[in-house]
Write a structure and sequence with these properties.
Structural class: alpha+beta
Number of helices: 10
Number of domains: 2
CATH class of the largest domain: Alpha Beta
Strand content: 25-35%
Helix content: 10-25%
Number of strands: 26
Largest sheet: 7 strands, antiparallel
Radius of gyration: 24 Å
CATH architecture of the largest domain: 4-Layer Sandwich
Bound molecules: calcium ion
């Protein structure tokens, strides 16, 4: 970071000798959130309103880098969907042109720069250009760039690796010249010329590895995963290795097709590959393609469209209350009305349970967890109805409420991978979509603490860590959704964690 550089006179002298000011190395956790960007200066600002009604209206930009990638924290005016062009879904048709040798005579001559790479956000595509300007088209996956969040937002954290996943090193100089243009809005950023970023050579320390072992004091370990069209039935071993490496008390699976795998099949799979912890038995709860396996007794199961709520009787040495788990696999892709409906249904069900008017009775101090494949590739209101109690269709589903009781909103489990600062939960190299964060875990933080959390992405684990866990490098790729693991400790609402004896 710049402050660090200034503290070292020799490096300060070297920095002064450069033609452009040095950029900022930053340990970016690529999760679509800008929390770690506070000390990074704003690279550029421009007014809102110099744009048409549709598409992106750029307003501000920060830039940082590590040894592998440039990161852009791009803010637009108004809710925008990063990876769609459809105007009815608040899409954009932005192209980011990048001149990776800061030489207008090489690459594609466009807008005063010579671009080696063009990234098209809404189109989910890219082009790399030879020094003579010859273009080769790439999919978003081949290009390797990722913009998060995958739902509508006004600020996007965009990771642009120096080498595309198809192998082209497009950045070959310290300086990178670039600009944005959205053909839907006709907004250009900057309005003329280009930005220059001087990539910082300062190294960024590798992230601390998150241990796979259960955190001390954990009351319940939860595993959440969409298992890709009943994949364990056809490819049992990777999922068995994951279960045994992670050792969850409760498993929330989605995309378990009922006609492929009935209850007896699932019980047989668990008995063969991952028997319940000593002294316990698996209880299965399901509706449609959502399946919960609980090693503690189940009090109630409530079907909710393609999802379900399961009321789990936590033992006294884990909690002095119980758990209501909403296991969700809400509608995919551009089915926003279907997602609105099911998210409202889940949220209002929790409101009614809290109010004592729900379909079954709960202890008022129960912890709620809403977890699963929320397919968050549309409007952010679909996250807000679950997290914040902001019901989308109040006429059908009733008033807004505080899902976290006195705390207001539910808390988000902020997942990242065990071995990197990546946070995507969905990864499908053959797809037209880049990696995304589609899966969520929300919980009531007045009654539960998260002691450990991670997304298991085995391709980025080290060989010794894979071996120690009994995992293989390809195990996470047995599904397009990665396993999410969360260690919870429970307490009475409003009582601090250390006031509740952890046994
Ligand atoms: Ca971040
Ligand atoms: Ca603008
Ligand atoms: Ca160039
Ligand atoms: Ca502009």
């Amino acid at each position: 970071m710049r402050q660090h550089l200034l503290a070292i006179p020799l490096l300060a002298l070297l920095a002064a000798a450069r033609t452009a000011h040095c950029g900022d190395s930053l340990a970016v956790v690529h999760d679509g959130l800008g929390a770690e960007w506070g000390a990074i200066p704003v690279h550029a600002l421009e007014p809102a309103g110099d744009a048409g009604a549709n598409g992106a209206d750029f307003v501000s930009l920060k830039v940082a880098n590590d040894g592998e990638a440039m990161y852009l924290l791009l803010t637009v005016a108004g809710e925008t969907l990063f990876q769609e062009t459809t105007t009815g879904r608040l899409g954009n048709d932005t192209t980011l042109y990048l001149d990776g040798d800061a030489n207008p005579a090489t690459g594609r001559s466009v807008g005063g720069i010579g671009a080696e790479l063009a990234l098209r956000f809404g189109d989910r595509a890219a082009t790399v250009y030879s020094s003579g300007g010859f273009g080769t088209s790439l999919s978003v996956f081949e290009a390797g760039y990722v913009g998060l969040p995958t739902h509508t937002a006004e600020t996007f954290e965009i990771r642009v690796p120096y080498r595309t996943d198809s192998g082209t090193l497009w950045r070959t100089s310290a300086n990178v010249d670039f600009y944005f243009f959205d053909s839907l809005s006709s907004d250009r950023f900057p309005n003329s010329g280009s930005f220059r970023y001087a990539v910082s050579p300062d190294p960024v320390a590798a992230p601390a590895v998150i241990p796979i072992a259960r955190a001390e004091g954990t009351g319940m370990r939860l595993l959440v995963q969409n298992i890709l069209n009943t994949a364990p039935k056809f490819d049992p071993e990777p999922f068995a290795r994951i279960l045994n490496a992670v050792k969850p008390d409760v498993v929330a699976w989605q995309e378990v097709r009922e006609n492929d795998w009935d209850d007896a099949d699932i019980h047989a799979y668990f008995d063969a590959h991952y028997p319940a912890p000593a002294g316990r038995v698996w209880t299965l709860a399901r509706n449609s393609d959502s399946v919960t396996m609980s090693s503690w007794p189940v009090l109630d199961v409530l079907p909710l469209s393609g999802n379900h709520a399961v009321h789990i009787d936590l033992p006294d040495d884990v909690s002095d209350s119980d758990l209501v788990l909403f296991n969700a696999h809400t509608p995919c892709c551009n089915n926003d009305s279907g997602r609105d409906f099911e998210h409202d249904q889940i949220s209002s069900t929790w409101r009614d349970l809290l109010n004592g008017t729900g379909p079954f009775a709960i202890d008022p101090g129960s912890t709620v967890v809403m977890a699963g494949d929320f397919n968050m590739v549309g409007f952010r209101r679909q996250l807000e109805t679950m997290r914040d109690g902001l019901i989308i269709d109040n006429g059908t589903w009733g008033p807004d409420f505080s899902p976290g009781r006195a705390d207001g909103s539910l808390a988000e489990v902020l997942t990242r991978h065990t071995h990197t600062r990546r946070a995507f939960t969905w990864y499908s190299p053959g797809s037209a979509f880049g990696p995304g964060r589609l899966d969520w875990v929300l919980y009531s933080e007045d009654s539960a603490d998260v002691l450990r959390q991670f997304v298991l992405f085995t391709p980025d684990m080290t060989a010794p860590d894979l071996a120690a866990a009994g995992l293989q490098a390809g195990d996470s790729l047995a599904s397009d959704h990665m396993p999410i693991v969360v260690d919870f400790a429970f307490r009475s609402p409003g009582v601090p964690l250390d006031a509740f004896a952890i046994r």
